[in-house]
Amino acid sequence: MKISKNKIVLAVVLGAISLNFVGCGEKEARTVAYFNENGKEAIKMRKWCLKAEKMTPLQEKECDNVAHSSSKEYIIYTHDVECKLMSEGDSDVEKFCKTAIEQARPDLF
DSSP for 40-108? Predict the structure, then answer.
């Protein structure tokens, strides 16, 4: 079977055009700076990351970035979660933990 020159040119052109659309719709991972400025979004993303069983490379990058967030809301949230985990339901321990954090990081409160 002989393929005409026109068909080869058409195949090359269509291939080049389709390669241009391969990356369309892909977004870049939100940065640490983004999560620093958007504390509520950082909290939402962190909760998702902790529950996720499978992640795309983009989601893995965002989970890594959110873990490095230094937004006030995010830091307070993570300390609250840590205090609850450490206290194991003991409200006195949880209160002590939160007080210790407030004294160690008065800039957050």
Answer: HHHHHHHHHHHH-S---HHHHHHHHHHHT---HHHHHHHHHHHHHHHHTT-HHHHHHHHHHHHHH-GGG
Q: Which burial class, exposed, middle or buried, applies to 19 when counting CB atoms under 10 A from its CB (0-12, 13-18, 19+)?
A: exposed
The contacts of residue 73 (CB under 8 Å, 6+ apart) are 39, 40, 42, 43
The pTM assigned to this predicted structure is 0.64
Structure tokens at 95: 């209160």
* pLDDT class of 104 with cuts at 50, 70, 90: confident
pLDDT in tens, 57-94: 999 999 999 999 999 898 888 888 888 888 888 889 88
Rg (CA), the chain: 24
Closest CA to 74 of 26, 104, 33: 33
